Amino acid sequence: MFDRPDMTERERRAYNRGLEHAAKLCQLRADEHWLMLHGNLLSDRILMQQTTPGTLQDDVRNSNKLIVEAHGISSRAHEAQDITKAVRELKVK
């Protein structure tokens, strides 16, 4: 938070309200990415211990692809959370 003495109380409240709406949108984006990550991990047959000897080679290939995707999704989720925090820190006292 920082101080802006040139703002009226009404302007300050409106400004902070706008920032909070932006922060909520960023948080929704982060939540969406966490849900995507959860779904991604649940579809990995090796992590879920559902592989069979006949499908092992395909499951390993698919698992490698899912892990790479999971890293990207996780990165975007953390990024959205960091943006949320940064937006909330812009609020005016």
Description:
With 93 residues, the protein is mostly helical. It has two helices and no strands. 73% of the residues lie in helices and 0% in strands.
Q: How are helices and strands ordered from N to C? A: HH
How much is the radius of gyration in Å?
21 Å
Measured as a percent range, the helix fraction is over 70%
Helix/strand structural class: mainly alpha
How much strand? under 5%
Count of helical regions? 2
Strand count, sense and barrel status of the largest sheet are: none
**Global outline:** rod-shaped
- Averaged pLDDT, please? 93
What are the low-pLDDT stretches, counting only 5+ consecutive residues below 50?
none
Termini Cα gap? 6 Å
What is the number of E strands?
0
How are the elements arranged and paired?
Elements: H1 9-42, H2 56-89
Structure at a glance:
By secondary structure, the chain is an all-alpha fold. The chain has 2 helices and no strands.
Key structural traits:
mainly alpha
